[in-house]
Amino acid sequence: xxxxxxxxxxxxxxxxxxxxxxxxxxxxxxxxxxxxxxxxxxxxxxxxxxxxxxxxxxxxxxxxxxxxxxxxxxxxxxxxxxxxxxxxxxxxxxxxxxxxxxxxxxxxxxxxxxxxxxxxxxxxxxxxxxxxxxxxxxxxxxxxxxxxxxxxxxxxxxxxxxxxxxxxxxxxxxxxxxxxxxxxxxxxxxxxxxxxxxxxxxxxxxxxxxxxxxxxxxxxxxxxxxxxxxxxxxxxxxxxxxxxxxxxxxxxxxxxxxxxxxxxxxxxxxxxxxxxxxxxxxxxxxxxxxxxxxxxxxxxxxxxxxxxxxxxxxxxxxxxxxxxxxxxxxxxxxxxxxxxxxxxxxxxxxxxxxxxxxxxxxxxxxxxxxxxxxxxxxxxxxxxxxxxxxxxxxxxxxxxxxxxxxxxxxxxxxxxxxxxxxxxxxxxxxxxxxxxxxxxxxxxxxxxxxxxxxxxxxxxxxxxxxxxxxxxxxxxxxxxxxxxxxxxxxxxxxxxxxxxxxxxxxxxxxxxxxxxxxxx
Length: 520
Description:
Elements: H1 3-10, E1 27-28, H2 37-44, H3 46-55, H4 60-82, E2 84-87, E3 91-96, E4 102-107, E5 111-118, H5 120-123, E6 127-134, E7 147-154, H6 155-166, H7 168-173, E8 185-189, H8 203-221, H9 230-240, H10 244-271, E9 275-279, E10 283-288, E11 293-299, E12 303-311, H11 312-316, E13 319-326, H12 335-338, E14 341-347, H13 348-359, H14 373-399, H15 406-412, H16 415-428, E15 430-434, E16 437-442, E17 446-453, E18 461-463, H17 466-471, E19 473-479, E20 486-493, H18 494-504, H19 510-519
Antiparallel strand pairs: 1-2, 2-3, 3-4, 5-6, 5-11, 6-7, 8-9, 9-10, 10-11, 12-13, 12-17, 13-14, 15-16, 16-17, 18-19, 19-20
Helix pairs in contact: 2-4, 3-4, 8-10, 14-15, 14-16
């Protein structure tokens, strides 16, 4: 061995910086996304590009469309090439941008959820998008400023990030077992028999409405008359030759069948392979989806309760959905989009079992206190008066000659149904205070029973309108930095409501109640 080789052998080896340290290495997004991102950007710019190529004919504005498309593709490619991230001891850092650079950092002690989504564009190359969310409550649909999105990582890397960011307590308690795969406890898994509840979710109705609206919009823009099709003419002619009531029945049956089929298809796409598990680190893990797979992790420390939702059709079929009331989840248009779904449409008894397993008890099953009869009168009067007001407006239009007489006559036939809905809304009212949970139930067409932890409330609000004062009723609102943001106990008796508020948040209303007694 030469002296030089001996000197080199005695030099200490340079150890690369480890993950989770202050000098952690930077990671790039997966380069395979470069095969997908330009295609997606071209598809999004297709209307502009097609208009420029087909109708430009050498005009100057034709180049505007081409430049716009080129900029969109360049922006997407530069995002993939320049995005980098790393996980240090105290935060998650993300950098991106070529001309306009961005640098964001999210403290690790504020990270509460890691949402892993794999859409078809990702699954083509076994990729996923990891959404790292903090505990700040957000109602928006899109990513907020406290959410960091890594939209092109491998599935293995996404799972590694989820374990690294959410299993901090387990690693601190047992560092020698940090590398071991956590053992999951199964709480709920989808059952094929639950497909019978899919038609009662009426999700297919939204698809039919959106499709009809889209077709009508394009037909109107293109000045196209669908009656020109021979098939449409045959269908219209068949209905014209049959009695009106038969045509209405056939149309209703056809619509119900179509909605049912679309609802079943939507259920399979959204909830297939659904699994709710608990990990030793105190984390709930939800996985679901057939084509687009989604994996959401929720720290149980962020749970503020649970809610069982029973839309009227689903309630008539004996089904329900279970939703977590947890901080840091986007509520969006529905709990499904927000990632807080604990159980898809399933038997009501199964939903109660999930609540009991997740919370350690089932406060939602507690017998509820009925509200006074004055709440019934308020619901009946509002429901009936709304229909009568609508019928009066139709009658006014008929009197002016803008409408025939039959619309307001049909509206009057809805009065009994409005009274039935008002009665059902009253029948669904109820509240209870059991242990550490405030339970409230309300609604008819979309009934919900929520159990909210009292120590998770940021206060209590007592509201009373003019008509409520005359009826001796109040509405209690429990603000919570989770779920919907607030949960109401509507139209409860004034004395019972104030006592309930004082028991839910002891001492908060004492100065006001003492002041009222002193003035009395």
